[in-house]
Amino acid sequence: MHKKNNSTENISAAHLTALLTILIWGTTFVSTKILLNDFTPTEILIARFVLGFLALFLIYPHRLKVTDKKHEIVFACAGLCGMTLYQFLENMALSYSLASNVGVIVCIAPFFTAILAQVFLDGESLTPQFFVGFLIAISGIILVSFNGSATFELNPLGDLLAVVAAMVWAIYSILGRKISSYGYNTIQATRRTFFYAIIFMIPLTFFFPCDWEFARFADPVNLFNIAFLGLGASAFCFVTWNFSVKVLGAVKTSVYLYLNPVITVITAMIVLEEKVTIMAAAGTVLALTGLIVSESKFSWRKRSRDADSKTGEEVL
């Protein structure tokens, strides 16, 4: 009984941390947009993860002792996919395509995660309600992202980069689930992925030069937003996200990404005073409905088996 209660508490905590993570990640677009006035995308990327790495080291300054050399490869791949490639591809996609296009496309990551989980992970089987929830949520995300705008453009390169970004995040989700099965401390494991992410970011500076003029950090607005991205969106959120993945699994945790554009639109309305239309409000309701349906414990397969069993008993 005690174990069951602990398990229930962990599951509830995992859902809450996943939701909290998305609440913070959904606001990062606004912070990044403000910082882009003085910093390049590459500078923002490196600064936030270096700060995040230092914060995690100060919180838990114990060296991670890797028990298997193969685990080190998984850590490196997770850092490359979840931090370096995903953030870089998303920024590049925004350079070539509309923000609304990219906002919709990257939210298909849960679908790719589900497909990969079927192939590479045990115990993460899909149910019909996952796909129903996915379709409902994507419909809502489309409404939220366009927010009543009549403008729609196809930008093959930018849209393709957004698709690749979603696939890369799905790979990170699977790698994160693998790492959680190794039994390492979550903070230490997250810090190790940050370390590799920073290593992989260094080559970007050769193609996208960085001008580390530290006077820009003296601006209170810049300092606050860098701190928010580094300490909140990076150090804190990746730890909480990895905890949720460890408890809920890659597929269940990934569906919370449906709320990302919803939070972004609400934050933009409050901070940037952008208008929110009825279409966006309706989209928010659909995105929330899709999340609830996807997370539902109701199993159509189980119900079908129960119905078949009951029919058999009636025949007997």
From TrEMBL:
For whether the record's keyword set contains Membrane, the answer is: yes
Query: What does the UniProt keyword field contain?
Result: Cell membrane, Membrane, Transmembrane, Transmembrane helix
The highest taxon in the source lineage is Bacteria
SUPFAM superfamilies tied to this protein? Multidrug resistance efflux transporter EmrE
| Localization annotation | Cell membrane
Residues in domain EamA? 14-145, 157-293
UniProt-listed InterPro entries: AA-Vitamin_Transporters, EamA_dom, EmrE-like
Describe its membrane topology: Multi-pass membrane protein
Bilayer-crossing residues are 12-32, 44-61, 73-89, 101-121, 130-148, 154-172, 193-209, 221-243, 255-272, 278-294
Keyword Nucleotide-binding set for record: no
Which family does the similarity line name? Belongs to the EamA transporter family.
User: Would you tell me the protein name for this molecule?
Assistant: EamA family transporter
Query: What is the source species?
Result: Acetobacterium fimetarium
